[in-house]
Design goal:
- This protein is α+β, with helices and mostly antiparallel strands.
- About 45% of the residues lie in helices and about 25% in strands.
- It has a 4-stranded antiparallel sheet with strand order 1-2-8-4. Strands 3-7-5-6 form a 4-stranded antiparallel sheet. Strands 9-11-10 form a 3-stranded antiparallel sheet.
- Strand 10 and strand 11 form a beta hairpin.
- Helix 6 crosses helix 9.
């Protein structure tokens, strides 16, 4: 992770961008720009954070890893939210593992500053709580989706949620990492991605997935994507 003194454009994050001018101006001098490479571990299960992170162009997956080493994604955070909600929800330590699934930028804030600002109340506190509610919806719907829907539908949901959080039609992602995210075998991802590629929805070459026809993904995806998106849009605008 590389760090620069001043963030380029914190308002690319929906939470920071929705702050009133006075709150934004108070926070801006104390924010730092970071760059996350693909696969970087932001925090481990049970760890403590010195900073929280507001992604601007990166995507971070929240994973749970079993004792045997297998893992599955519970939710993902991009420019819609914040990584490290335990710091303001009172948990202290992290209840999961956070891994960068799409390289890019983020804005970081010291944990103490976050707690102090949260204690002030105001719009910042409200936005953090609304995002937490949206994330809970996403985590709950992911559990339902992984239990009831096909790998192809799960992959479409994952691709659409990721696409919503980056300003690009291309995602750099290996099949192994996708399999870990969805908690399925790599062979299942190969078949599902191949079907979507044959349908002209995506192209997949050497770890790069390009979305060619978003509507075809939307036509294939289960209702879980719509539930998550509508709740996020309702809470965060």
């Amino acid at each position: 992770m590389s760090v620069s003194i001043r963030p380029d454009n914190p308002s690319e994050n929906r939470i920071l961008g929705a702050l009133p001018g006075q709150e934004y101006e108070r926070l801006f001098p104390r924010l730092q720009q970071v760059f996350f490479p693909l696969g970087e571990i932001v925090y481990e299960f049970g760890g403590q954070l010195d900073y929280v992170f507001f992604p601007t162009s990166s995507i971070v997956s929240l994973l749970y890893t079993m004792e045997n080493g297998t893992s599955a994604e519970m939710g993902l955070t991009g420019n819609d939210g914040v990584v490290g909600i335990a710091l303001f929800m009172g948990g202290g330590t992290m209840p999961n593992r956070a891994v960068v699934q799409s390289a890019g930028g983020a804005v970081r804030m010291k944990a103490k500053l976050l707690r102090d600002e949260f204690a002030r109340g105001g719009k910042f506190q409200l936005l953090l709580l609304r995002y937490t509610q949206a994330l809970i919806t996403q985590i709950s719907q992911t559990a339902v989706c992984n239990r009831l829907h096909s790998v192809e539908q799960q992959l479409c949901r994952w691709l659409l949620l990721s696409h919503d959080r980056v300003n690009s039609d291309e995602l750099i992602m290996t099949q192994e990492l996708i399999a870990d995210m969805l908690g399925v075998r790599r062979e299942g991802v190969t078949v599902a991605a191949g079907g979507l590629q044959d349908a002209g929805a995506i192209s997949y070459v050497r770890g790069r997935i390009k979305i060619l026809d978003r509507q075809k993904l939307a036509d294939t995806v289960c209702e879980c994507y719509r539930v998550v998106k509508e709740e996020s849009d309702r809470l965060l605008g």
